[in-house]
Amino acid sequence: MYGAICAAFLIISSSPMSGSLEIDQNLARRLVLEGATLVFLDVPRGTEFGIDMKSWNTGEKFRGVKMIPPGFHYVYYNAVDSEGDTAPRIGFVHNFKKSEFLVKKWDSAIEDISSAEVSFEELSRIREDLLNLDRFLGPYPFDVWKRWKDLTSKVTDNLVSRIIPQSGQIRSALELISCDYKPSSGDAPAQKRRSRPITEEEREEHLLPQLKPAPGTELRFIEFPERNFPEGSTPAEITHHSLDSTYVLETMVAKYARPVDIVGELQFAFVCFLVGQSLEAFEHWKRLVGLLCSCDDAVSKRREVYDEFLSALEAQLVEIPEDFLVDIVASNNFVYHSLRSLFRTLQLNEIVDGRLKSKAKRFQDRLTAKFMWDFTGLEQEEDDEAPVVVKT
């Protein structure tokens, strides 16, 4: 057994997937024994393949990945045609168990993973030939492991099973189908009818094809409530709930097994965007960030949620370019303005404990150092929508 471990460890330095990666020998030996293995057969040469935050273009000898640390991992691929054009990204999330052996096969007819189950006999045969197969398996990219763990620290089995599409695959480009109803050129749907005539823009919109995601292909994120205030609220209460989104947050938190699961959903949405290139997930992530930053009452009631939210958001902002945080239409940085609001609330709320305030202050300082965002004068309301830049 020790000889097999040493042989597998030596392969790391010569693997085309590993580059100049160096790994602690004790960790390598442990993961040869305890790490999971993903065997991916018949993948065409040149296919873009990745796991978590590293991707490669496969060669002729590629057969999969070994030494995968137990836990959640995001496996993805982009088919590449003979002209070098890359298809939209497709991926799946899998919670690898200790020493798990997972086999997937490529179906060239559909340029995707085969939907056919690998038989027990074939699985056993492949596993028995693992020593010969080993040299065709690239080691997991350990230089991204810690960052990946930070990005998925609150993601659970229950969350993943609820959110992932029923098809099991996460697609960067949703498959859209036509709705049954298509309005005529002179009509508008009943819910759109108004006392005034519809505008030309509205008429043109009604003429566009009515599309929706194909059943089973969309991410099933938790839905925001239709109203941001309780039924029967007075005008004064409606105004209060418009300024403080605690009611919306509490309504959503009640749908999770644990309140902190909302941070897990935030993390999962982020990696579906960062790794899976899903704009649908990015929009949901933005809405969750905006929600969590606009709750005055909840910051003291939900201390654990906000403690984990600050940690999660800090790990995420390390991975995303600042350009992605700027709203193209409004030309402002929505994360900066959302955080100014949250930091203001934390600073002025006398009930919030000192440790959470200190953590927020350290986060502010690191954001200022990284992006040159200015969080001074939090006690004052913002008039300017553009981020304030520190002069150096």
From TrEMBL:
UniProtKB keywords: mRNA processing, mRNA splicing, Spliceosome
GO cellular component, one term: spliceosomal complex
InterPro entries in the record: AAR2, AAR2_C, AAR2_C_sf, Aar2_N, AAR2_N_sf
Region spans: Disordered: 182-205
Keyword Lipid metabolism listed: no
Residue ranges of every copy of the AAR2 N-terminal domain listed in the record: 34-165
Gene Ontology BP terms: spliceosomal tri-snRNP complex assembly
Positions of the AAR2 C-terminal domain: 221-375
Subunit description: Interacts with PRPF8 (via RNase H homology domain). Component of a U5 snRNP complex that contains PRPF8.
General function of this protein: Component of the U5 snRNP complex that is required for spliceosome assembly and for pre-mRNA splicing.
Family per similarity comment: Belongs to the AAR2 family.
Name of this protein: Protein AAR2 homolog
